Amino acid sequence: MQKRLQKAFPTVTVADKAARLDETELAAGLRLRDAMQAYGYYDAKWQVHRETSDKKKYILQFSITLGQPVRVRKIDLQKTGAGSNIPVINGLFNNFPLKDGSILDQINYEEWKGKIIAILNKQGYIKADYTRHEILIDKKALWSEIYLWLNTGPRFRFGNITVHGAEHYPQWFIKRYVSFKPGDWYAPAALAVTQSNLRNADRFSDISVQGDIRAEKNNVVPVNIDLKSMPAQHIKVGAGYSTDIGPNAALIYDNYNAFNEAQHVRVSILAAQLNKNASILYKWPVGKNIGSEYIAQASYQNQTLTAYDSNEILASAGRQWTLRNDNSRNKTRTLEALLNVEQANYTVGDEVNNSFYIYPSLQYTTQNFRNVLRPISGYSLIARVEGASKIWGSSSNFLRFSARATWRVRLSNQWVLGTRAKLGAMWLNGPITLLPPNLRFFAGGQNSLPGYAFQSQGPVDSEGAVEGGRLLAVAGVNVQRFVSKNWAVVAFYDAGNAFNSFSDFKLLDDVGLGFRWYSPVGPIRFDLAHPLVNPQAPAVRIAFSVGFSL
């Protein structure tokens, strides 16, 4: 009972005046009376004691005598309607929280009532209601009677979907963001997911997704989607700092509605201390689901990292399929098939090389988070396989597999446990010097071993210079402690490395502390990591990122 009452009495700050203190004491007494009655104690009595702390703060202490509670002597539960006999409703009715002779706990009673309606609404019974919900109480005789009659009403389905506005976009494309289809059972949650999908598309404003209950006919509810198009073309200029590539500036041009067919063209230029990149990306949506599209892209990248320097020209084309049909941004599953052409020249250690590769790749991606803007419960996985052959004109034959995964679970309101892993394996016909650095395995960096420089760890050549490996295994664990709704502190440990065989595997590990801010645009992450093996300057490295990424 003490824990229950504490929720009704948060700490209140008042001015240092006796009149204000009297008002606070009176208000607290009224809240206490209501709380005691809600838990069935209508005859409770109490005394109030005032104390003054060293900091001149008043503390009101209530000494409560509960008295005899009001007990339940009769429960009349009834249910009618099309959904009255579905298993979950039968189960809840069979486990009504109050029994004959039990104390009248109106908090449990109200929570149970609300749970029933929420379940029915989710399954299409949107007019479910209680035709009678009444508690008769005799305060003197200390008895109560409960009358609760449920009518689920009929079950409704989604009807026709009508889109108003956003005339420059094809109707079929807009309906890709709809998480339901005509004939599905009506669910307000599906309307909310659709509205969220449209908002996150970066194409529409003034978004409204509403079921027109007044226009329902034969238990079918039409849906109206009202949209206003945002300007299709955007230019973004930004500057920032990444621990992996240093200070950077970016210029990005987007056209989200090329040819008025919702085709997306992006041109981006990144100038960073350790990485310079220019790229063009073209996406042509196809099919009924978000993420199903043709892809064509080309890029030039120059990297000057601890272990290597490289210049790469890469062109890719292919198709991506969405494997889920619920069109939710929080839950995705895609398969991407690309044909890649890459020309590179690079210096690793003291060895200068160049290579040319034509290789297909197949990538599977899945994520399932309750909310990608607060990714504190769920998982993600990216697995990729790719390979090349000299028959196609490539510099060597290789088959390469890589995967990275994260998993997080909320242990309580304050605590979150998270794990992550990166794995890689490669078969190569010839020395590793035949591969450009982006196809070799290195460890180090924010999403690998944050206590070590980006792509700086792995097997070494005869001169002792890191040259990258054929295998990769890195894993980490972290614990978050929320200190407020959107802020958390985190402690983490990571271990692993890149290597050529298990016999020459050299374990590296690091520890660190940081914080997370779950902002409206996604999580903002700031970490301090310290390497535990062969620490090099700086002894503490900073890892910083903004937004959610797989």
Task: Encode the helix/strand succession as letters.
Answer: HHEEEHHEEEHHEEEEEEEEEEEEEEEEEE
| Arithmetic mean pLDDT | 89
Query: How many discrete structural domains?
Result: 4
From the 3D structure, determine the CATH topology of the largest domain: Porin
Query: C-alpha Rg, in Å?
Result: 31 Å
Strand ordering within the main sheet: 9-10-11-12-13-14-15-16-17-18-19-20-21-22-23-24
Helix percent band: 10-25%
Q: How many individual β-strands?
A: 24
CATH superfamily of the largest domain: membrane protein fhac: a member of the omp85/tpsb transporter family
Low-confidence runs (pLDDT<50, min 5 residues)? none
What is the CATH C level class of the largest domain, in words? Mainly Beta
Q: Strand content of the residues, in percent? A: over 45%
Shape: globular
- End-to-end distance: 44 Å
Summarize the main sheet.
Answer: 16 strands, antiparallel
Structural class: mainly beta
Give me the CATH architecture of the largest domain, please: Beta Barrel
Features:
550 residues; 6 helices; Ubiquitin-like (UB roll); 49% strand; 24 strands; 4 domains; mainly beta
Describe this structure in words.
The protein is mostly beta strands. Helix content is 13%, strand content 49%. A hairpin with a 4-residue loop joins strand 4 and strand 5.
